[in-house]
Structure formats: structure tokens, C-alpha cells
Design goal:
The protein is mainly α. It has helices at about 10-30, 40-45, 60-75, 95-110, 125-135, 145-155; strands spanning about 1-5, 35, 80-85, 110-115. The chain has a two-stranded parallel sheet. Strands 3-4 form a two-stranded parallel sheet. The protein is globular, with a radius of gyration of 15 Å.
Length: about 160
């Protein structure tokens, strides 16, 4: 499992989510690799100029591409034939946008992206049950300060 989420702020939130990803990886018997955290780079390459974009807008698409490029690069450098993402388990994410980002990242890195829509076949409900069984922290926003700001002003999660 590759954990790459420089979009998450503050860093304490990033660490908390990383710790929970490690719990899940251990429960599944897989190794976890945590990518370096560089929120300043993410702000510069992803969010700059798109701070006021709505959720599911251009900033989110650019964010998916940013993280999936890092994943594709890691996969290529470590001999993996393909990669995918668990982002599609969320009913709040548009799988087609994620698939496009994954395909672009794969093409740029000479690897293969596997399109898997994990919310299908009650995948989201299954993920909730698995998280509860493991006592995992469940966040109420994607992780970037822009979605958190919207959550707090609207009073709900995205």
C-alpha cells in the first residue's frame, strides 16, 4: 500500500490518516510505504490559482493527478506492473475524473492504471464496516484546507 497525500493539511491530520492506513495495511498483511509529505509543493503545483474552486472542480482533478503521478512513479521505480487507487470508494468522488488522472499518470510513467470503482457492490458500506471493525479514524473531508473550509462553512462533509 502506497500512502501519498501531500494534499492533507495540517500535517497532524496527514499523520493521523497515515497511522490509520498503517493499521489497515497490517490487518490486511501488506506493507505500507509512506511517501514524503510536501504540502508546500502541493499548494504550488495543485492549489495555486484554484483556491476558490468548488469541490469536484478543477482543483480536485489536479489533486488526483498530482497524487497518482507520485503513485505511478513509485510503482514504476519499484517494479510494479500496475497500480490503482482507493479514492473511488467514496460516493463523493467522481470515478471518471479519477480514472482519467490515473490513465494520464500511468502514460507519463510507462505503467498501467487499473480502473476499479470500489464504491460499486456496496463497496462504500463495506469500507465503513471494515473501518468500524478495526476502530479506524474516519475523516469528514478530503483533507485539503479548501475542502475543510467549505465543510465548516456549510456544516457538512464533501
Amino acid at each position: 500500500m502506497f500512502y501519498s497525500n501531500s494534499n492533507i493539511a495540517p500535517e497532524e491530520e496527514y499523520a493521523k490518516r497515515g497511522e490509520n492506513a498503517a493499521i489497515l495495511a497490517a490487518a490486511e498483511g501488506v506493507e505500507i510505504v509512506q511517501d514524503s509529505y510536501d504540502h508546500a509543493d502541493w499548494l504550488e503545483k495543485v492549489a495555486k490559482g484554484l483556491e476558490n474552486e468548488p469541490e469536484k472542480g478543477a482543483r480536485c482533478a489536479r489533486c488526483f493527478l498530482y497524487n497518482l503521478r507520485r503513485t505511478a512513479k513509485y510503482a514504476r521505480e519499484h517494479g510494479f506492473d500496475a497500480f490503482t487507487t482507493s479514492l473511488t470508494v467514496s460516493p463523493h468522488k467522481v470515478s471518471g475524473v479519477i480514472f482519467a488522472a490515473g490513465a494520464q499518470a500511468a502514460k507519463e510513467n510507462g505503467s498501467k492504471f487499473v480502473e476499479a470503482d470500489f464504491k460499486k457492490k456496496n463497496g462504500f458500506l463495506k469500507s465503513l464496516a471494515r473501518a468500524a471493525a478495526l476502530g479506524l479514524y474516519r475523516q469528514s473531508w478530503c483533507g485539503c484546507e479548501f475542502s475543510m473550509r467549505k465543510q465548516h462553512t456549510a456544516g457538512k462533509a464533501d
